[in-house]
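Researcher: Re-running this chain for the archive, since the previous output was lost when a drive failed. Same request as before.
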Amino acid sequence: MNGRLIMSLLAAIYSVGVLAQSADTTDMDIRENPIILFDNGNIDEESVPTYINRKANHITYNGADWSALREAIANSSQSPVSVIHIGDSHIQAEIGTSVIREMLQLDFGNGGRGLLSPLRLSGTNQPHDYGFESGSSWSIEKIMKAPWTNLMGFNGTSLTLRGNRGNIRLSTAENDESYNPFSSVNIFYTGNLVVTGVSDEYGMPLEYSVSHQNGVAQIQLAKPISKIDISLESKGSLTIFCASVSNNRPGIIYHAIGNNGATYATYNRIGTTAQGISHLKPNLVIISLGTNEAFGKLDLMSFRSSMDRLIKSVMEHNPQSEILLVTPMECERSSVYRVGRGKRRRRVRTYAVNQNILPIRNEILRYGRENHIAVYDWYSVAGGAGASGRWFNDKLFGGDRIHHTASGYRLGGKLLYEALIKALTEK
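Model: Regenerated structure tokens:
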């Protein structure tokens, strides 16, 4: 089955899901279990809506010095450049980030797919361009299902092996027509891990070597491949968080960490996010959060405290990294009320602009100015006040008015790429 047919089937499935959305679902349900409408729309210059604020489509440095990052980009043909994008459901599906990844890699070289998280194994949606599967028995944790029985990974998932033997299957060509082979695999774990074998998708043994350091098992393959099965053994407890794949070449490696429903406080709750990403040696850390904080009671002091805690932790553990904060765009929240009487009584869902988004956006801008951290004002770029209605009318927002359609995410990815490329190459 080819990629286009699969995407068409997904579009049909997700379309039905949007239409069938229950009137009883809450905004929290929607944010933790988003239904994203896949379509075949391509975003080119002609299709960018006129209400997109192209004049605002730039990065405001706030006094941050990006010269070292630009130097790293200029030397990306000799040494890989690592970018980590942390966020919520807007990032988990990896539709917009895949656009940024592809375009940056076309400009500066493909260093590999980057981070792979066992999202589907943990019962949630996973990007379509990689696989992280297993035929073994695991105790599974994910970030939004606290309290956790086992240690949580810096990426928001964890798999604890039941028994002494298991396997994981990794691929970079799951439901995608592109071919993105890798020759190096990093497995992030805690406990006791022994790699007992590596084979291809047909079960044929592969030549490999393994080294361990600080909770990372690095597997070097003798030749590039896009699908492998790793056999594991543990003589104690073993918890695996995620994996990262690369091709041992220079260029851009664009990692994404996204979790439905996540906030700044969510990543702080893990406690190891900043320390964990240090193993990926980021040159740039992009943080796209704030949407989920806008639901429920607004507490700007608490929001700023959570933001400050995560950002300072990232800076402490990744002193070589630049940070880019991304503001959320306008979205809407829903209300359900009853109309009619007797057997004709029914629930009706209505939508209104989420008034908490703007003060959160303003707080992020203020924090960036006061702490000399670069900011990308996605709120303004997307069209400012009133953007949510225009995006919905143009089928760039899905039925929940919180998540975009695939076309909307591709548009956001294209615009952030344009801002990044200007910032990374200007003299």
